[in-house]
Amino acid sequence: MTIVGYLEEHYGLVILLFGLFIISISDTHLDRSVIRRIIASNFLLFVYSITCYLEEYLGDQNYYSPLRPFLSAVNYSLIVFTLVHIIMIIYPKHPFIFWIPAFINTFLCFISIETGIVFTISKDNHFQRGTLGYLTYFITVVYLVYFIGKTFHSRNIRHIEDYSLPLFMSINSLICIMMPLCFDSMTRHWFNVTISIDIVFYYIYLLQQYTKRDSLTNLLNRQSYYSDADKYNTTLTAIVAMDMNGLKDINDRNGHTAGDIALKTIADCFLRASNANQRVYRIGGDEYVILCNSTTEDEVKDLINRIKDDLKNTTYSCAIGYAMKQEDSTLDSLYHTADKMMYEEKKKYYQQSGKDRRKR
């Protein structure tokens, strides 16, 4: 039982965790709370790898050590708490009840040292499962099912590229947790490495989202607009153009913070009104676009009505125009047609309101 022995088994994991730690502390793009949760998850995985190594070493001895059941309780606790931290990287806000299964698992694992309810280590140093021997694995599955359900019900995740990685992470984690139960030759090292790789994948995913999304509204940005217009060219049927009314006036009277709140508020309205076939983008200061795939004109009109109905619950308004794709349509011609309709509506708004047209 030496540092060299530990590194022989876990060198790849240590390098992976240390590299991710260096990248995390030098990151200037992601929210610092996300970085802290990534670092916390790395630390838990590192501790878990050490306690696993120590527990397996003691398990190979022909004598009983009181330290082994303590390490087993720590290991079972860390499996669940590490998974909880991974979920919190992706979905940080949870009620207190979210933590209860993890605390119950830890409590039962530690009292098992005396009661044997989850596991017991015999005096001849053999590990045996107790009445609740599969408790940790059951709670882990519950958390993974919760994670998958939350992923599919998130209003910001409605396209396959948004939920494919979280779903892959869940299935991958489930397999790595269950495999040692099915095959005795497999060790819990699978959990360490798999979860570490999942964190790396998700970190890359976050950076990818950073390049695709507008930082203020979290909508897709102008670069994504052009990329997706080309990607979905064969299924694109309509474009909806939106422009906020009176943003300059809000900025002049109440400051740019109020203007940012207004932009975020109407962006949320657009997102709530759209469905999986309608992708929302912020392409400029107060300019938004929705690319409609496999959407009829009646469905486009319904979309616009939903937007207008939602905006009535706010103090803001928008001018909206749309254009249906024709055989000879290009992206520019579609946007130009929708933009022209939108400005006609904007013109009517300023005529009816009596406001200064220059204060857009």
Structure commentary:
With 360 residues, the protein is α+β, with helices and mostly antiparallel strands. It contains 12 helices and 6 strands. The model has no long low-confidence stretch (mean pLDDT 85). α2 (32-59) runs antiparallel to α7. The longest helix has 28 residues, at 32-59.
Query: Would you report the number of β strands?
Result: 6
Give the radius of gyration.
27 Å
User: pLDDT under 50 segments (min length 5)?
Assistant: none
Helix content: 55-70%
Number of helices: 12
Distance between the termini: 71 Å
The major β-sheet equals:
4 strands, antiparallel
Strand % is 5-15%
Helix and strand pattern: HHHHEEHHHHEHHEEHEH
Q: Structural class given helices, strands, pairing?
A: alpha+beta
Chain-averaged pLDDT: 85
Biggest sheet strand order reads 4-5-3-6
Tertiary shape: elongated
Topology:
Layout: H1 3-26, H2 32-59, H3 67-90, H4 100-115, E1 119-121, E2 127-129, H5 135-153, H6 160-182, H7 189-212, H8 222-231, E3 236-244, H9 247-254, H10 256-273, E4 278-282, E5 287-293, H11 297-311, E6 318-324, H12 331-353
Antiparallel strand pairs: 1-2, 3-5, 3-6, 4-5
Question: What distinguishing features does this structure have?
Answer:
360 residues, 6 strands, two-stranded antiparallel sheet, alpha+beta, elongated, 4-stranded antiparallel sheet, 64% helix
Can you summarize this structure?
This protein has 360 residues and is of the alpha+beta class. The protein is built from twelve helices and six strands.
